[in-house]
């Protein structure tokens, strides 16, 4: 069976069902795909059985006979580990399958993984923009890049987990754009943390400040949402701070490679490292306010 097969028949392997991978897998199941999941912590994969997922004991088992394979893991080394070796997905993934790399791993790692796929399987670079809540609703923004001929093969998958797919031609451009967007969001989040701290110090009503931002051109829906979470001290992880710090570290690495400076981003990372050191790494990025 080819990847152009009907949705109800297509088998998708999902490697990594954590904060983002699990809701993505659930939406694929709702769309009628045959979903096989693997996770380093098996309990997370088993939590999806009730929704119809099949749990694999290894990446190789998950990938066997798959039409499409998604990697949604923390970083480049984690993806490479899951894909290579006798228990790795590439050992069993059919040659006509498509590997869809959806985690945020940076530009260098993406290039390395594309080379790893080589002539073995087709490769699509498709990181997502959005936290766990839009992931649950199937409203992620997918930043896809790769061979145009693969678009009809993977679009049904993207339609199941996202509300919009932005296609770029060159493999790796999806990851490049993701770094740019993450860098922008990081500056917004830290800016809101400092704004809320200043608001409190000046004796102003935080809700009034946030309402003013919401109702004016100055506002950003993302920043205001994080602002409310900061005011309420609700740090339920939509996107953990340690993951956000990892992502802007990747942006700084890319900037260094291209010999440009991002002093504001460097300052944000220092603040976030302080918050992580204070025990807030697994909390939402809104916990950045704890360092302010």
Please characterize this protein's 3D structure.
This protein is α/β, with parallel strands linked by helices. The protein has two domains: 11-171, Rossmann fold; 176-291, N-(1-d-carboxylethyl)-l-norvaline Dehydrogenase, domain 2 (Orthogonal Bundle). The chain has helices at 21-30, 42-46, 59-63, 76-83, 107-117, 132-137, 151-161, 173-201, 206-214, 221-232, 241-257, 263-280, and strands at 11-15, 34-38, 54-55, 68-71, 98-101, 122-125, 128-129, 140-145, 162-168. It has a six-stranded parallel β-sheet, sandwiched between helices. The N and C termini lie far apart (55 Å). The relative contact order is 0.10. The model is unreliable at 1-6 (pLDDT under 50).
Query: What is the number of strand segments?
Result: 9
Widest sheet, order of strands: 3-2-1-4-5-6
CATH architecture tag of the largest domain: 3-Layer(aba) Sandwich
Q: Pairing-aware structural class of the strands and helices? A: alpha/beta
Backbone shape: globular
Radius of gyration: 20 Å
Provide the residue-averaged pLDDT.
95
- Terminal residue distance: 55 Å
What is the domain total for the residues?
Answer: 2
Instruction: Supply the number of helical segments.
Output: 12
The CATH topology of the largest domain comes to: Rossmann fold
Strand-and-helix sequence, N→C? EHEHEHEHEHEEHEHEHHHHH
CATH C-level class of the largest domain is Alpha Beta
Proportion of beta-strand residues: 5-15%
For the largest beta-sheet, the strand count, sense and barrel status come to: 6 strands, parallel
CATH superfamily of the largest domain: NAD(P)-binding Rossmann-like Domain
């Amino acid at each position: 069976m080819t990847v152009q097969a009907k949705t109800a028949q297509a088998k998708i392997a999902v490697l990594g069902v954590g904060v983002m991978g699990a809701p993505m897998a659930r939406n694929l199941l709702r769309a009628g795909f045959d979903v096989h999941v693997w996770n380093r912590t098996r309990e997370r994969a088993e939590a999806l059985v009730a929704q119809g997922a099949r749990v694999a004991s290894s990446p190789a088992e998950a990938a066997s006979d798959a039409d499409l394979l998604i990697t949604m893991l923390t970083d480049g080394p984690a993806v490479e580990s899951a894909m290579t070796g006798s228990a790795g997905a590439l050992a069993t993934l059919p040659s006509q399958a498509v590997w869809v790399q959806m985690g945020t791993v940076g530009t260098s790692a993406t290039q390395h993984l594309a080379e790893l796929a080589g002539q073995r399987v087709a490769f699509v670079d498709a990181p997502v923009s959005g936290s766990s809540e839009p992931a649950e609703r199937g409203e992620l923004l997918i930043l896809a890049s790769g061979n145009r001929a693969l678009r009809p093969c993977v679009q049904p998958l993207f339609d199941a987990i996202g509300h919009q797919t932005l296609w770029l031609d060159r493999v790796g451009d999806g990851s490049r754009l993701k770094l740019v967007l993450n860098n922008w969001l990081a500056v917004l989040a830290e800016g809101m943390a400092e704004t809320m701290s200043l608001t409190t110090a000046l004796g102003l009503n935080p809700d009034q400040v946030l309402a003013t931002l919401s109702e004016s051109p100055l506002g950003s829906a993302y920043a205001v949402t994080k602002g409310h979470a900061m005011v309420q001290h609700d740090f339920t992880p939509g996107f953990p701070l340690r993951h956000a710090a990892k992502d802007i570290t990747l942006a700084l690495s890319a900037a260094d490679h291209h010999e440009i400076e991002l002093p504001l981003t460097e300052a944000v990372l220092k603040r976030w490292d302080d918050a992580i050191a204070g025990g807030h790494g697994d909390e939402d990025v809104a916990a950045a306010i704890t360092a302010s």
